[in-house]
Request: fold
Amino acid sequence: MSAAPLNELIVSITNILRKSTEGKIFFDHSEAGEERFDQWQKLLLTSADIVHASWNDESDICEQALTAFETTFSTPFTIKEQSQ
Reply:
């Protein structure tokens, strides 16, 4: 199965989250905010591709990519929690 459907879902979800209260704070409309969003989305897509490609591997690369995905995904939300 192609990773394209998964990538489309990630793009849709990240675009929705970008419009959330937390997303508007972390990914503001500045150039830096746009850059943060692009980098965040790219890291999510990259780690999802690694998970997809390594799902049946015997190594721990898939687990590492899942951890990277979870950590990256939560970044905009955990930064807000840390600042309170």
Remarks:
- The radius of gyration is 14 Å.
